Amino acid sequence: MKKFIDKLKNIWSIDELRKRILYTIMLVAVYRVGCYIALPGINPSRLADSSGPGGILGILNAFAGGAFSRASIFALGVMPYISASIFMQLAGIVIPQVAKLQKEDSGRRKINSYTRYLTVIVTLFQASAYVAYLRTPSYAAALAPDYSPFMFTLSTMIVLTAGTLFVMWMGEKITDRGIGNGTSLIIMVGILARFPRSIIDELSAKNVGGGGGLLIFLIEIAIFIAVIIGLILLTQGVRKIPLNYARRIIGSTNAAKEVSGSRDFIPLKVNSAGVMPIIFAQAMMFIPTIFTGFATNEKAAGFVHALSDNRSLWYNLIYAIMVIAFTYFYTALIFNPTEMADNLKRNNSFIPGVKPGEDTANYIATIMDRITLPGACFLALAGILPGIATLLGVTSGFASFFGGTSMLIGVGVILDTLQQVESYLLMNHYDGLMKTGRIAGRTTAPSRASA
Q: Which homologous superfamily does the CATH classification assign to the domain defined by 19-193?
């Protein structure tokens, strides 16, 4: 306990780190307060007994920190921004002009601007669908009767768009002046805000009627901890490729010095894509819910409903396939074996038994493809675990934490944040957070030689 307190004192003694932590806490507090501010024309007291939606909308509500079910000004959260980012990344593959912009600093700034403009369009589209959702019977009692439907629609779309842009701005500010990735941190805060209530509800449900309910609850907690451990291993797991450095001449002609070769390794992460495939797949699975009210055929309506229920076979099958596909897609976006091979060649380093250049790039790409498959399958399994837990009798609130959709985000963001805190400690000549080695987050470079 004394060592833990000493670590906190060391963290607080670093002026820049202290300011970043306080800035992050301030913006997170603003976000949480906004999640409880109702939209104009909504009576918050009528929403007190309203339970959150189920299925895909329930997961979207979890990402928004409960703001979706509360009809809050932040009801859509950052999901429109994530959807716009997906579109721009896909455009980078299909459209050569966008791909060229992604390789330049000025081009990336333009893409960020285009993403923000596209976020406005996506938010307006989703806001119109959310207005239709608010007119369903579950929210009809909360609508102000003297508020005209046209003004309610117009004001709701404007407020929701402004709210999403404000949340997006807070995420960018946290990334620049705070701790960690701002967008991921906001999603994590929204998810973990529901955790204490979910634990209490699950314990209450298991204690009703006795019959060994407490033992079942303890077993669920044990499995829950095992899932967290598995996600940590997935996040930090690497495949080390041995690397040798040739003898090099350092210095000028008159004072040249020969440095003997050394050995190192390239740590290829099993899950290089991190949490993004889960978020991408979740955003794409939200699309069928838009057409729920337009399906007139009974079979079509049943199929659309199945895609909105995380307990259905079709939902879990399609969701798992999309997670695997997005894992390969996002890994291909952020991982360039050809560029890595060129960097190794420029640094006079090589993989033993492999020729420099194209052969090295092919070798690295082959290994990356092999280790990405088990990582993608584990991500898919983690994504469908909440539905499986619900079918086995776990309450829907606690089941959402049982799987990777919620916990992979939480584990990844916490590791990234701790990694940044540890970097500040080491730069100021303090000990790290762990004795056994440095914390490896999701942002660790794929190769020191390519840095």
A: SecY subunit domain (1.10.3370.10)
Determine the distance from the C-alpha atom of residue 205 to the mean position of all C-alpha atoms in its chain, rounded to a whole number: 30
pLDDT in tens, 167-202: 999 988 998 888 878 888 888 888 888 888 888 888
The whole-number pLDDT of residue 449 equals 35
Could you say which DSSP state residue 44 is in? Answer: G
Q: Tell me how far apart the alpha carbons of residues 65 and 357 are, in angstroms, rounded to a whole number.
A: 48
- Where residue 186 falls (left for φ over 0; alpha for ψ -120 to 50; beta otherwise) is alpha
Cα angle 64, 70, 76 (rounded to 5 degrees) comes to 35
Most confident of 127-136, 241-250, 440-449: 127-136
In the chain, where are the structural domains located? 19-193, 231-251+260-451
The topology under which CATH files domain 231-251+260-451 is Preprotein translocase SecY subunit (1.10.3370)
Amino acid at 357: G
* 348 secondary structure, DSSP code: T
Task: Please give the pLDDT value at position 450.
Answer: 34
Question: What is the H or E stretch that residue 245 is in?
Answer: strand 238-245
